[in-house]
Amino acid sequence: MIKVIGLGLLAMAICLALQALASVLAARYFAHARTQPVGRKPWRTIFVQFSVLMIVLMLGNIFQVAFWAVLYRVLGAFEDFETAMYFSGVTFTSLGYGDVVLDGRIRLLAPLQAANGLMMFGITTALFFSAIQQAMGKLAAANQTAHEP
Q: Which parts of the sequence belong to the Potassium channel domain (predicted)?
């Protein structure tokens, strides 16, 4: 049991590294995008920036789900990667349908993965919310400048 929990904690640390990488890439992109003028169609510009940000952050989460799926395959929990990926995605997002489950001691990994997913989506949400706040400030400043005499 202690080995499984240790393996789960190691997997969580690796996911944190993946999340940090995606977060840094997203933050660098948005820091660059923030310096660009919003142009004549600010809502479209901001939508494109948010879309890129969302895709980068979601790819970070998808890579984490895939990492857990590979771990489950290596441990022999599932016969094919698709099932491992499905289980991993359902667990990482805390949906927990229960139609696919782990057997034996490695089932202790599932709650660790769910807790990991909650934390990683929390980081993703915080970054996205920060970007929204910055963009709304920039949009308000652009509107104020446009309406000045």
A: 65-133
Q: Which of 17-21, 84-88, 126-130 has the lowest mean pLDDT?
A: 126-130
pLDDT at 147 over 70: no
CA distances from 112 to 45, 69, 100, 115, 118 (A): 39, 14, 17, 5, 10
Q: What is the pTM of this model?
A: 0.84
In angstroms, rounded to a whole number, what is the distance separating the alpha carbons of residues 141 and 52? 22
CA dist 80 and 52 (Å) reads: 31
Token pair belonging to 6: 């240790």
Among residues 19, 36, 17, 54, the alpha carbon closest in space to that of 131 is found at 54
Calpha distance 30→25 (Å, rounded) = 9
Which pLDDT value is given to residue 139?
75
Task: Give the SS3 label for residue 65.
Answer: helix
pLDDT in tens, 24-36: 998 888 888 777 7
Report the candidate in 89, 113, 109 with the shortest Cα–Cα distance to residue 99: 89
